[in-house]
Amino acid sequence: MRVVRSVLGVLLALIGLIVGAAGAVAAFWIVGPDNTAYAGEQHLSSKGMAIATRPDLLDQHGPTLHVDARSSNGKPVFVGVARDFDVASYLKGTAHTSLVQVEYPIALTTQDQKGSSSPLAAPDGLDWWVTKAAGAGTQSIAWPIADGPYDVVIMSADGKTAPDVQVKLGIEIPNAFLASLAVLVLGLLLIAGGIFLILGRRRRPVAPAPVVAEGYAPPQHQTPVGPLRRVVAVTAVLALVSGCSAIPKSDTVDALTRPAVTDDAAVALIKHYNEINNKANSTRSNTLIATVEGGALLRQDLADYTIDRAGKAEPIRAFTYTSPVIGAPTFGSYPMRFVSSAGITGNKEYRHLGLWERETAGSPWLMTFSAGPKATAKLPDLAGLRSVSKADGATLAAAPQVAANNLAAYLTGGAKSSHAAAFTPNADLSQLLAGIAKAKAEMAKQPAVFGKVTNAFTAEPSSAFMTKSGSALAFVTLTDRYSVLAGAGYQLGWGQAPETAFSPSAVKYQGALTKTTLHDAVLVIPPKGKGKIQILTFESQIVDAGGY
């Protein structure tokens, strides 16, 4: 049996030597006391504007990813991590390089993506990065890899030049150093166990008993497995403690979402808007106001500037939106929107309700809708806002776009329209309809001069959000195309402001006068069977006038 013990001892010692060597290499060469396995520094460059990992490259979560990047040409560099849909929107249509494979110790496989070489928005100024670093010299990030599709992006800090960088990647696994030491100790224990089996003392032979009971068989010699069992048990325990604690887990999340904006970012955005808006208003700068506004709101304010210049009006007195409350729905794609409700300096009678939109990940936030509900009006709670789904539309008194179209039909048809019954009365809207009816009645008194008068209202695509109460908050812009035909032999022209800002009174038209007005309405659409649609605000701005 000594031969069996010796063979087992040699095998155990060899296994211990291999295990111990592996633990020593892992502890003192691969991982180190910081629990991080670094790959060697690698040179990366791109003919495009960025270098970005593909989402399937980071398909396991748990460990911490370390990325160190420095520019090869001394220029400031940027490195950041973001959700894949943000990065995809940011880089869409732009030439860049995809990092598609990383092999240890260091082998990076890249793939060039064709596109435009136009500059990108400076990455450090964008608010959707999960973590980021930018500046001169080596820039480093440490990111606990999260479940879901994320990308690492490396680029020039200005977003205008192709990146040329030296990159070092590392993976930090919790307790990896201790686990490696445990493996080393395990190897030493296995070696010790093997030596024990090889050199262990033989037992002294024991003289057989002189008398053997009938039917009793003397015990057979057995392999002394007690020490071996103890070694196996210790091995199993150490393997469980050291090896399983830091195994990365495969991703289970296929698609990510996030709030459109954080409260802090939204407050900073509104503060920036206040500053730019007041500067633009003081000089009526079309260029400046276009940096913070978009959509129908920008068109309205540019028209307002035109009217003020024509009338030589005094500059608008400076004001700011204060103490904003933010309603930020969750999105997983672009465009993104959020709502703000704020006070107005010097105006206690009204509040401000704003709709903000970001078209792509690289474009700025712009205010696209502005309304002024009375301070006494009950506004829906903005906490927990979310985009309206098709299923939500079925639970409401009317789906948001249907409500917008019905409002347009109501205004086109007048106060006696069949659609009027779906809405609660609104003083501003009623005043508009009364003015339209009065103007038509006056022109009807001169049939030879004025022909057919038309006000055709159409609803633009609306933005709507569900509130916690089950109602929907809808932002609706209506385009009012007005025309009045000229009687035979007559010429018509605009005779007073604001129309004369677009068509001087000296200009006459033989066919018809035309005018375009934008009307903004904020609707509160209740659940089905819970009442009528409330027109929270209704405001108008002429944006063009002329004729043919």
From TrEMBL:
Transmembrane segments: 176-199
Domain DUF8094: from-to ranges: 258-547
Keywords recorded for this protein, A-Z: Membrane, Transmembrane, Transmembrane helix
Pfam families named in the record: DUF8094 (PF26366)
Record-given protein name: DUF8094 domain-containing protein
Annotated source species: Kribbella antiqua
